[in-house]
Amino acid sequence: MDKLMEKGLTVAISLGAGFVASKAFDLTWKQVTGEEPPKNDEIDAVDIKRALVFGVTSAAVSAAVQVLSQRGAKAGMNRLKNNRSEV
Question: pLDDT tens digits for 39-52?
Fold first, then answer.
């Protein structure tokens, strides 16, 4: 049961953190470059350098969010287990 709860917590944290990180990344991109982030429907209008930088940096942010959300879920489950055992 604990594994199922941990997986559910990981998914919930990942979705929430991914949404927040995506919005923060888009805002940062706009502030740094002065342009909107490239999207799929504008792919032909974006030069290759800009598309590569966007892709690499957004992938790095996504990977970091995934790792941190998994660690956060594990820490949250450990806290829940500890609280449950104290009661």
Answer: 766 667 778 888 88
Is the pTM higher than 0.70? yes
Which residues, at least 6 apart from 30, have a Cβ–Cβ distance to it below 8 Å? 36, 37
Domain assignment of residue 78, given as a range: 2-86
- For residues 30 and 34, what is the distance between their CA atoms, to the nearest angstrom? 5
Closest CA relative to residue 1, chosen from 70, 67, 87, 80: 80
Q: Note whether 6 and 77 are within 8 A (CB).
A: yes
Helices and strands in the chain: count of H runs, count of E runs = 2, 0
Number of domains in the chain: 1
